[in-house]
Amino acid sequence: MTDKITIAVSKGRIYDETIPLLAKLGIVLKDDPKKSRKLILDTNQSNIKVTIIRATDVPTYVEHGAAELGIAGKDVLMEYSGDSLYEPLNLGIAKCRMMLAGLKDAKPIIDRPRVVTKYINITRNYFADRGQQVEIIKLYGSMELGPVLGLSDWIVDLVDTGNTLKANGLITLDHIADISSRLVVNKAAMKMKNKLLKPIINQLADIVENSES
Ligand code: ATP
Ligand code: PRP
After folding, report:
1. What is the pLDDT of residue 87?
2. What is the total count of domains within the chain?
3. By CB count within 10 A, which of 53, 93, 117, 136 is most buried?
4. Domain containing 168 — which CATH number?
5. What's the pLDDT score for residue 83?
6. Residue 142, ligand 1, Cβ within 6 A
7. Residue 166 is inside which H or E element, if any?
8. Tens digit of each residue's pLDDT (9 = 90 or more) over 169-202
9. Cβ–ligand 1 contact at 94 (below 6 Å)
10. pLDDT for 106
11. Which secondary structure element, helix H or strand E, spans residue 95, and what is its range?
12. Domain range spanning residue 122?
């Protein structure tokens, strides 16, 4: 259908910061996702639907055209291996940093350092660029626990206030990337539904520009 648009939005903090952005576009959810079990939510605009999904699934839906638009963190997009996403806009929300961190009182590392992360590709590329051999261990959450319990020497994870690192006796060792949420667009839809998508992208760009100035 050329006249319908689905927007895939990451759950959690990105969703919370996306709702005011959508409202400025004149798009308001009809259902409250915190109360409803519906996975596709209607909006006040009959041709626009919103689906709120796991962060890591957003690029998959958009790349395959199941959603025309997506809102996801740069961390997720850097980690994602697909290449057919158009990324026209930095929305400047859910800002944080991708950091290498380790214990404040770490003992010297004798063997190949072990690193826990959920960002396997980013971590692999980071150390490959430095020519450093490491053992990467995949975790799905609470990365900070890795060094504390001796699972790893270092972590690669997101840092915002630094409170989680501090509360667990960790310090930052290197800054890997600045992270914020991006608008992603399915490339085929960009051509086929240009008349619908272009005004949304342009209006979002204006909103972002005005919120920065
Ligand atoms: P999942 O449950 O699928 O693993 P998640 O726990 O990573 O998701 P969130 O923690 O809400 O979900 O993170 C979603 C996105 O929010 C991340 O991809 C990132 O872009 C951003 N983000 C994560 N942590 C922070 C933070 N501390 N401060 C600001 N933005 C963050
Ligand atoms: C994220 C990230 C860090 C924390 C950093 O975790 O993985 O643990 O935020 O934020 P801070 O520097 O402000 O403390 P989140 O709260 O999303 O938990 P999760 O990793 O278990 O999803």
Report:
1. 96
2. 2
3. 117
4. 3.40.190.10
5. 75
6. no
7. helix 163-167
8. 999 999 999 999 999 999 999 999 999 999 999 9
9. yes
10. 92
11. none
12. 96-177
How far does residue 168's CA lie from ligand 1's centre (Å)? 19
The answer to whether the CB of 161 falls within 8 A of the CB of 86 is no
Using one digit for the tens of pLDDT, what is the confidence trace for 145-173? 999 999 999 999 999 999 999 999 999 99
The reply to whether 11 and 86 lie within a common domain is yes
Whether residue 102 sits in one domain with residue 61 = no
- Taking 50 as the pLDDT cut, the residues of the chain under it are none
The pairs formed by 78-81 with CB atoms below 8 angstroms and a separation of 24 or more are 78/119, 78/121, 78/122, 78/177, 79/119, 79/120, 79/121, 79/122, 80/56, 81/121
Residue 49: which of 37, 41, 59 has the closest Cα?
Answer: 41
- 192 Cβ contact list (under 8 Å, min separation 6): 2
Pocket test for ligand 2, best of 11, 158, 161, 178 (most atoms within 8 A of CB): 158
Would you state the pLDDT for residue 189? 95
Do 115 and 90 share a structural domain? no
Q: Whose CA is nearest to atom 21 of ligand 2?
A: 141
**Does the pTM exceed 0.85?**
yes
**Nearest alpha carbon, ligand 1 atom 18:** 73
- Any atom of ligand 1 within 6 Å of the Cβ of 178: no
